[in-house]
Recover the amino acids of this structure.
């Protein structure tokens, strides 16, 4: 009897929990090896305290966790498909948007009008084990031309939007940002914020929400796995925890009560989420959608989730993300004999690829959270070690994904999707350089630091091209086995242009702007207009707030910058941020134009 083994000073809460776990939840093994009361009391108390934390950190407590685990493990043991009975189709409530089109401009205009009511949330609790970088991913340079780290880029978009709202007469504007951290990332992210003055944000704007790990499970009866005698093994629960935390901390409710209307979710290494977030917001507002899933064209069988409408035999239907490994069997089982194939006309799967940029109607979100407690669909991925499927090779756990929130959206609400061209899409930095080179050799997107960096340049260069500027095209290149498309290194800071519509007036005669393929162009500062520019080399423009620059007709030709592939020796001793790229940037010659506050320059 666990009761008789508990420490004398055991709290009522701990006592009740131990009894419930032992007698109701099938967890008697946790206490089996306990010596009589009075012995190892400190260890016992430590285990009870850990169990109480696990109880508090899961919606519905350990009973709910164990109950869900048993249900999902039962399905896994029986080999059942979690999506049995559902038929996929392409959801019709979507829109394809091409930046530069009148439609895109109209939606971005609408988004700009709503910008004062935006809030942001990003899960950043992931360890990034695959990356070969010991710091937090937010600290990685998004590109090495400016060296701005990912979190600085995110903050700069928020700051630029605030300035836009304030200048448009909207009064003081502070757009809040919630960052989900974990034990693995909390110290690193806090340090990054502290050392950089919160990148210009006010500390009160930034809310860190800490996700806790969940209990690991030892077998298909959902017995909690022990790590030693007095500690339950724990594992990360996934990015879906962000919803529970936004709810349990009252953050979403507080924001809604403050009159905020929209909440944009994104991930921790893809800064291109901000290339179109206002157009996405515009679509969300125009469609009255509860959730708008940002997507890109997806090749059939490509390893990204697909936006699908699922219709059940009983008449229910839901629009949601279906993981790529579930889509093919689902299509085959529901009469699509060819499975996941590309459309002959577009060359892409008809199912949009979901990239985990999610725009929510915040008021509807807060109401749904109140009803669900922030709990979302989970899944389990046990690796069985025996044919009876009762034991695992190593403990497993329930996991959840941020995008699965849409499965809890009430049926009367709309889930929309908005698809952008690939160059405005998803180019995360996830893989170390050796894995990336292997993927590259197989023709699979490498998703690493170099491809992510080149994607940033390419997106900005594409924006200039779409306006009518002549910008040299990217050429195939390779750095330590990773194939990239290398074009001019263009970085248009958010202070210069937080969105495409606000870039347009900065280049009033774009056909007079020419940037050669080997060039580098970095522009930051709000009050900058470029009328005519001929660039063949490197140009860095910085205009402080309160200063202005009008480039009437400027020619810059210099030796410019060079991305130099590391030799084996250089690679072996390179700092991590350079080693994960496989190159270093050599700035041979740069034309620098720096305009201070109060200065007004015409060139
Ligand atoms: P990733 O798929 O990139 O996973 O997460 P990861 O855990 O960061 O990286 P690996 O697998 O260890 O290499 C996608 C997003 O979800 C966040 C990440 O920080 C990233 O923004 N995430 C992931 C969490 O916040 N918590 C988690 O438990 C897992």
């Amino acid at each position: 009897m666990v009761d008789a083994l508990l420490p004398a000073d055991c709290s009522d809460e701990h006592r009740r929990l131990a009894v419930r776990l032992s007698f109701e939840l099938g967890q008697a093994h946790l206490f089996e090896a306990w010596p009589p009361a009075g012995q190892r009391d400190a260890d016992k108390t430590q285990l009870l305290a850990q169990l109480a934390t696990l109880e508090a950190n899961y919606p519905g407590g350990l009973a709910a966790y164990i109950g869900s685990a048993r249900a999902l493990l039962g399905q896994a043991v029986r080999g059942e498909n979690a999506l049995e009975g559902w038929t996929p189709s392409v959801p019709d409530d979507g829109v394809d948007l091409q930046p530069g089109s009148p439609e895109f401009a109209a939606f971005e205009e609408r988004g700009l009008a709503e910008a004062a009511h935006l809030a942001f949330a990003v899960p950043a609790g992931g360890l990034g084990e695959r990356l070969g970088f010991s710091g937090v991913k937010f600290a990685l340079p998004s590109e090495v031309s400016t060296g701005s780290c990912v979190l600085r880029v995110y903050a700069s978009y928020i700051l630029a939007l605030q300035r836009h709202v304030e200048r448009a007469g909207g009064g003081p504007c502070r757009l809040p940002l919630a960052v989900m951290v974990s034990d693995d990332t909390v110290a690193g992210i806090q340090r990054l914020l502290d050392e950089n003055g919160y990148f210009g944000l006010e500390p009160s704007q930034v809310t860190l929400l800490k996700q806790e790990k969940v209990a690991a499970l030892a077998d298909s009866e959902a017995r909690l796995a022990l790590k030693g005698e007095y500690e339950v093994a724990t594992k990360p629960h996934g990015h879906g925890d962000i919803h529970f935390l936004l709810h349990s901390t009252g953050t979403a409710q507080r924001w809604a009560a403050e009159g905020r209307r929209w909440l944009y979710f994104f991930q921790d290494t893809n800064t291109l989420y901000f290339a179109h977030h206002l157009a996405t917001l515009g679509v969300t507002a125009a469609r009255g959608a509860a959730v708008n899933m940002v997507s890109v064209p997806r090749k059939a069988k490509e390893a990204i989730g697909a936006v699908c409408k699922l219709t059940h035999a009983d008449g229910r239907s839901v629009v949601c993300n279906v993981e790529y490994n579930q889509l093919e069997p689902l299509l085959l089982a529901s009469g699509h004999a060819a499975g996941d194939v590309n459309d002959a006309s577009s060359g892409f799967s008809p199912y949009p690829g979901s990239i985990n940029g999610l725009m929510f109607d915040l008021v509807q979100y807060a109401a749904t959270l109140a009803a669900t407690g922030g709990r979302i669909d989970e899944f389990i991925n046990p690796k069985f070690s025996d044919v009876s499927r009762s034991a695992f090779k190593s403990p497993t756990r329930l996991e959840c994904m941020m995008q699965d929130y849409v499965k809890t959206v009430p049926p009367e609400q709309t889930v929309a999707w908005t698809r952008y061209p690939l160059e405005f899409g998803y180019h995360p930095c996830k893989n170390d350089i050796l894995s990336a080179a292997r993927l590259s050799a197989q023709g699979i997107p490498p998703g690493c630091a170099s491809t992510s960096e080149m994607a940033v340049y390419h997106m900005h260069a594409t924006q200039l091209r779409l306006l009518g500027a002549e910008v040299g095209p990217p050429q195939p290149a390779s750095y330590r086995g990773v194939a990239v498309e290398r074009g001019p290194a263009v970085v248009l800071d958010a202070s210069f242009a937080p969105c495409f519509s606000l870039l347009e007036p900065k280049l009033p005669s774009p056909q007079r702007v020419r940037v050669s393929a080997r060039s580098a162009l970095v522009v930051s500062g709000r009050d900058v207009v470029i009328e005519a520019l001929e660039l063949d080399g490197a140009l860095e423009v910085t205009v402080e707030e309160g200063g202005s620059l009008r480039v009437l007709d400027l020619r810059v030709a210099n030796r410019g910058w060079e991305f130099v592939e590391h030799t084996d020796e250089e690679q072996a001793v390179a700092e991590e941020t350079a080693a994960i790229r496989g190159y270093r940037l050599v700035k041979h010659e740069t034309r620098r134009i720096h305009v201070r506050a109060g200065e007004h320059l015409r060139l």
